[in-house]
Amino acid sequence: MDAVAWTLGEEYLCLGITWPEGVPALDLVEVSGAAHVRVPIRQRRFGFKPGTAGRFCIGRYGFVDGTGIELVPCPGQEPAAKGNQCELCAARDEFRFAHHFHRGGYAPDALKRYMAQRHWVYIASFADGGCKVGTASDCRKRSRLDEQGAVMASYLAETEDGASARLVEDSITRELEISQFKHRRSKVTALAAPVEWATIADRHAKIVTRAVELLEGSPLAAQVAIGPQPWQPPDEVTRVFSERPAEGWAIYPHDLREGAHGFHVSGALGPAVFARTSVDADAVGFIADFGSLKGFRIAPGEHVSPESIVQGTLF
Predict the structure, then answer these.
(1) 3-state secondary structure the chain
(2) Given 88, 199, 252, 266, which is the most exposed site by the fewest CB atoms within 10 A?
(3) pLDDT tens track of the chain, all 315 residues?
(4) CA angle in degrees (0–180, nearest 5) for 274-193-202
C-alpha cells in the first residue's frame, strides 16, 4: 500500500481515516483500478465531490503474519447490505468472532493466533468528559487509541492474550458501568465545545484509580500486569484546548456526502479533521467529520465548499 497523493479525475471509495504510526491519512480504494492508497491529510489542501451514489462495502479484516490485522477491500466494491459490508465480505470476515472469543464458541485458526498475543486494556476519555473502556492487541497498542478520537487515555493492564483482555474489559463495564462504545458523531461534536481540560483530567484519573483497584481485588489479577501507562496523544489534542483559533472552532455545517467541498487541513483527531475553507487568516476554523465518508465514493478535484455562515464558537 502506498502513501500518495490522489489522482484528479479518479473516483475512490473512502474507507475512513486511518492512523498508521501516528500519522492520520485518508484510506481509499480506486474504483477503476482497485489500488489501495493512503493519503496523508495534515497540512494540505483537499477538494472533492461525491462519486457514484450509494453506500458501498469497505471490505473485511484479514490477518497478517499471525499478529496483525489489515483491511482487505471488497474485490467488487459491492453495495453494502448491512452496516459497511456486503454479505460476502461479512461472511468472510474472520475478525467478527473476536468480540465473543472470550466466551467460547467457534474461532478460526487465524483468529486464535491473533488473540494469543499480548493485549492491552485501556480507558479513553473524550472532549465531553465521557469515557469508554476498550482493548487493543500489542501490534495495535497505539493506532487503536489514535483512531478513537480521545483526548486522554491510559492503558490499565497488560494481558497475555486477547481472551483475558476481554474478560477484564467486561469486568470493568459490569462493575463500574463504563461503556465499551462511544458514538463517532458525539466524539466529533464534543470537540467544538469541550469540557475544561482540568475537569476531564480529574474524571479520568478517578476512573483509572477505581478500575485499578477493581482489578487488584479481582480473581483476574493473576492473569494481568496491572499498572496505568499514559497514552501519548496526537498534537491536535493540545490545539483543541490551548491553541485554538481566536474565533474558536465550529462544526462544518454541510454534509460531506453531498455537493462539493474544499479544505485547507491542518490536522486531525480520530475521525475529525481540523480545517478552513479558505487560506485567509481570518477564515473560520471548522471541525469536519471525515468518518461520515466511510463507505461512500468521492472524486478529488479543485473544488470549494459552499458558503458557510456560522458564528465562531469560543471555547
Answers:
(1) CEECCCCCCCCEEEEEEECHHHCCEEEEEECCCCCEEEEECCCEEEEEEECCCCCECCCEEEEECCCEEEEECCCCCCECCECCECHHHHHHCHHHHHHHHHHCCCCCHHHHHHHCCCEEEEEEECCCCCEEEEEEEHHHHHHHHHHHCCCEEEEEEEECCHHHHHHHHHHHHHHHCCCCCCCHHHHHHHCCCCCCHHHHHHHHHHHHHHHHHHHHCCHHHHHEEEEEEECCCCCHHHHHHHCCCCCCEEECCCCCCCCCEEEEEEEEECCEEEEECCCCCCCCEEEEEHHHHCCCEEEECCCCCCCCCCCCCCC
(2) 199
(3) 444 668 888 999 999 999 988 899 999 999 988 788 999 998 889 899 999 999 999 999 888 776 788 888 898 999 998 789 999 999 888 877 777 777 777 777 888 888 899 999 999 999 999 999 999 999 899 999 999 999 999 999 999 999 999 999 999 999 999 999 999 999 999 998 888 899 999 999 999 999 999 999 998 888 899 889 999 998 888 878 776 655 557 899 999 999 999 999 989 999 999 998 888 867 788 999 999 999 999 999 999 998 865 544 432
(4) 110
Place of cell 500518495: 4
